[in-house]
Inverse folding.
């Protein structure tokens, strides 16, 4: 079978069956400080879809970088069908300066579709859209918690779209949230362009988290297999994947020092104590209670909180007990995973 044509990117021809890292110019802050976005392309020998994987669209959410780096070392990519476009750092400005936003203080993930002659954020969004998103059929955008919050690994997606829902389950987390779209987000633009995109949330800002990384790499392998870009392993799925009915934040009703009693992934019951808030001398305690049965999807990590601060993100399920079992099995399924131990599990016939 003859090889398919080369993948043309930034004036470079990447032959079928090869891979290359290509620097993409971004708007510089001066002629002495050019800014380049690293893009790694794996162009398979045989035809297939094009999948993009992006990380660090917020400069502080660096957990996805580790996921992309490990995915690119996976031997399954040697037999890839189609094309994988991996961007380990989208927001190079924020990443290098250890900050979330761009130098113009705008949120890149609220700036799509972007504009070539717009603000700095609009120009970067325009580059990512035209060079990466518009040239892809599917996408996965990797995120972590922000603002001193940490998240239990989960997928946020438009579950009303059957194809997106299928990919969300293939990612193989324990929890999926049917998340509303944010105006100007990458995911909103992709949906309007007819491209199914998943948003993976796991861990916290400025950290590489082993559980988040393992679940993220395994999830991407599962998506590649579901799309037919790599071979599936006919093994039973190690745990259930449950769709949250809804989610809400439990907020602080007073200011003080918070001491949590639960962690992400824990099942909680209505009326259960999630934390206590006390004053600076450790007196005048007040309990923070769960409003309903559910699971801790994310939580604040800062000890000192203000009245009204979001403390715990609680996901609601049809069966909280079943969600607890799924979370326990999810953790067990990640134990001992190494570089090549990321099977794409599918149900046995």
């Amino acid at each position: 079978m003859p090889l398919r044509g080369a993948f043309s990117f930034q004036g470079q021809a990447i032959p079928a069956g090869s891979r290359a890292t290509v620097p993409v110019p971004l708007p510089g802050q001066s002629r002495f400080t050019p800014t380049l976005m690293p893009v790694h392309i794996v162009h398979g020998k045989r035809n297939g879809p094009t999948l993009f994987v992006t990380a660090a669209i917020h400069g502080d959410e660096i957990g996805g970088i580790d996921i992309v780096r490990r995915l690119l070392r996976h031997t399954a990519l040697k037999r890839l069908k189609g094309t994988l476009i991996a961007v380990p750092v989208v927001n190079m400005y924020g990443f290098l300066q250890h900050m979330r936003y761009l130098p113009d203080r705008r949120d890149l993930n609220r700036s799509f579709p972007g504009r070539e002659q717009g603000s700095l954020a609009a120009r970067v969004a325009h580059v990512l859209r035209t060079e990466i998103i518009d040239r892809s059929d599917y996408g996965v955008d990797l995120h972590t918690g922000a603002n001193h919050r940490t998240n239990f690994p989960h997928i946020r997606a438009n579950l009303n779209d059957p194809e997106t829902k299928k990919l969300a389950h293939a990612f193989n987390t324990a929890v999926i949230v049917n998340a509303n779209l944010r105006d100007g987000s990458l995911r909103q633009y992709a949906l309007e362009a007819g491209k199914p995109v998943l948003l993976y949330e796991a861990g916290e800002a400025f950290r590489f988290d082993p559980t988040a990384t393992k679940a993220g790499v395994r999830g991407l392998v599962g998506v590649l297999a579901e799309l037919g870009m790599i071979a599936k392993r006919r093994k039973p799925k190690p745990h259930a994947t449950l769709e949250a009915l809804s989610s809400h934040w439990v907020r602080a009703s007073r200011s003080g020092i918070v001491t949590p009693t639960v962690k992400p992934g824990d099942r909680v019951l209505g009326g259960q104590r999630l934390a206590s808030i006390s004053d600076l001398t450790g007196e005048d305690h007040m309990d923070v209670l769960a409003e309903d049965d559910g699971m801790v999807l994310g939580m604040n990590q800062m000890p000192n909180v203000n009245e009204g601060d979001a403390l715990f993100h609680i996901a609601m399920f049809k069966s909280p007990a079943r969600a607890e079992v799924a979370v326990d099995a999810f953790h067990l399924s990640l134990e001992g995973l190494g570089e090549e131990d990321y099977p794409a599990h599918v149900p046995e016939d």
